[in-house]
């Protein structure tokens, strides 16, 4: 009898692809190279810096600054902390919890986003897009309820400076990324 070994998830320093989809299953956006900084039973923390992004229409662009990304298996949002000269800005996607396979980390993007500026000012974005897609793709009432509940959780995290919204979190994970990049440079010499 042959027993398959359980597949291991990505480890610190591994590079993964991230893919977001829409409710109808169509590919929305792909980030090609994200370095994994930490994995746990329920979460993945990574960083991308000058990463190639491909949109569903084929348009390509490169991110401008380092960004720490946070994905969780239980929360219906993911968080991107963009490290800029004027401070940290956050882009939070309301989305399904992530799944991970051999190809990529994947999730379904549900249109709504919360942008947080370095000043702490918050904006809910794309409510019109959410309404349009909700009708077009017939989002079930359960999805609507879950997303509303998770917007509240996310806003609480923002207001409390919890997790990715604390400066200490940003400092620790950005320093870890810099260390790993230095290790890679040293290994190439």
From TrEMBL:
The active site is at residue 29. It holds the Pfam family DUF402. It catalyses: a ribonucleoside 5'-triphosphate + H2O = a ribonucleoside 5'-diphosphate + phosphate + H(+); a ribonucleoside 5'-diphosphate + H2O = a ribonucleoside 5'-phosphate + phosphate + H(+). Its cofactor is Mg(2+). Keywords: Hydrolase, Magnesium, Metal-binding. PANTHER family: PTHR39159, UPF0374 PROTEIN YGAC. Has nucleoside phosphatase activity towards nucleoside triphosphates and nucleoside diphosphates. This is Nucleoside triphosphate/diphosphate phosphatase. The lineage of its organism: Bacteria, Bacillati, Bacillota, Bacilli, Lactobacillales.
């Amino acid at each position: 009898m042959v027993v398959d070994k359980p597949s291991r998830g990505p480890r610190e320093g591994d590079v993964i692809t991230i893919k977001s989809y829409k409710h109808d299953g169509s590919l929305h956006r792909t980030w090609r190279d994200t370095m994994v900084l930490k994995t746990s039973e329920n979460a993945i923390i990574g960083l991308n810096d000058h990463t190639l992004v491909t949109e569903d229409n084929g348009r390509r662009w490169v991110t401008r600054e380092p960004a720490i990304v946070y994905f969780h298996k239980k929360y219906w949002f993911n968080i991107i902390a963009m490290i800029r000269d004027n401070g940290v800005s956050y882009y939070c996607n309301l989305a399904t919890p992530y799944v991970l396979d051999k190809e990529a980390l994947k999730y379904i993007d549900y249109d709504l986003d919360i942008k947080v500026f370095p000043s702490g000012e918050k904006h809910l974005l794309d409510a019109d897009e959410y309404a349009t897609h909700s009708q077009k793709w017939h989002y079930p009432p359960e999805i609507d309820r879950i997303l509303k509940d998770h917007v509240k959780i996310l806003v609480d995290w923002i207001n409390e400076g919890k997790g990715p919204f604390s400066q200490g979190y940003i400092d620790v994970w950005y320093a870890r990324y810099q260390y790993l990049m230095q290790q890679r440079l040293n290994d190439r010499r």
